[in-house]
Amino acid sequence: MATLCFQSPSKPISYFHPKSKPSPPLSTKVSFFRCRASVQTLVAVEPEPVFTSVKTFAPATVANLGPGFDFLGCAVDGLGDHVTLRVDPSVRAGEVLISEITGTTTKLSTNPLRNCAGIAAIATMKMLGIRSVGLSLDLHKGLPLGSGLGSSAASAAAAAVAVNEIFGRKLGKEALVLAGLESEAKVSGYHADNIAPAIMGGFVLIRNYEPLDLKPLRFPADKELFFVLVTPEFEAPTKKMRAALPTEIPMVHHVWNSSQAAALVAAVLEGDAVMLGKALSSDKVVEPTRAPLIPGMEAVKKAALEAGAFGCTISGAGPTAVAVIDAAEKGEEIGEKMVEAFMKGGNLKSVASVKKLDKIGARLISSISR
Description:
alpha+beta, 14 strands, disordered N terminus, eight-stranded mixed sheet
C-alpha cells in the first residue's frame, strides 16, 4: 500500500540566551527579558508609545477542524485571555517584565522567555525595533492549559496585539501571527492553526508556512453557526498529543482527508453548516490516534451525533470535544448529552458551552493615552 510521510511543519527557532545570569526578579511573581528574538525588525524608525497602558483580548480557537490538521482553524466568541500592558519607567529600556498572572492557572512561569505572552511580546518588540522603552505585562488566563482551545495562542495573540497597539499599530496582522508563531514554536510546534485565527478572527486557512501565506475564509453573515464546546477535567498536553501522531499514512487516507478538507472550506464559504459538520467529523488520520487517549471521547462523539449535531470532533489536540449546529437552543441540548457521555464513557466531569464564531480576533479593549 502506498504511504505518505506525515510530518508537522517545523522551523528551528533560536532564542537569545544571555551569557551572564539575568537580573534577579523583583519578587516571585516578576521576571523580565531583553527584547532580542529571532524575528526581523520591520519598522525603519523606532516608534514612540501612543498609550501609557492598553488592555487586549484574544479569543479561544478550534484548530484542525477534523481533516484540516495544522492548516485550518477558527476563533470562537466569548472565551479567551486578557493582557494589560504598561509603559513602565522602572523597567529597563528594551525589556519586558511579566508582573502578574491571574485566572485559571497558577502554573505559568513569569520568565518571559518561558511564557507564551512574554515570547510573543518580545518578538513584536523586535519587529518594531523597540530599544528605548520598558514594558510591564499582566496576563489574565481565561482558558485552562491543555484544553484544546488554543490557550497558548490566546496568550500570545493578546500580548502581540498589546505591544502593537501601545506603539500605534504599526504592524499588520500577518506580522503579528509571525510573532505569535515564535511562541507556539517554543510551546507546541511551529503551527499557525490556533494563532492565526486568534489574531485574525473567523476561519483561517494556512496555505503555506515558508513563506507564511494565510487565507481568511468568510462565513456568510446571514447564516447561523454555533459551536458546542465540552471540556472535561482532563489535561491533554499538545506535545504529548502530537507525539502520538503517525509518521506515515496510507495514500487512501490522504485522498480521503484532502477531499474532506476541501469540502470543509467550501462549506465555510457557502455557509453550509450541515456539510461543514459532515466534513469536520470525517478525519481518518489524526482523530483515530488521539481519541483513544481521551477517556470517553468516542462515546461523546456518538452522543453528539445522535443528539442531532451536524458533526463532532476533537478541538485541537483535545481534550475538548467540539460539535457544530445552527441553533443555540439545540446546541444546549447536544451539550448536555455530551457531558453525560464524558461521565459515562470516561468517568470525567465536564463543562459545556455554546459559542458563536468570533469574526474579529484579538483586539484592543481599553487604553490610556499619554
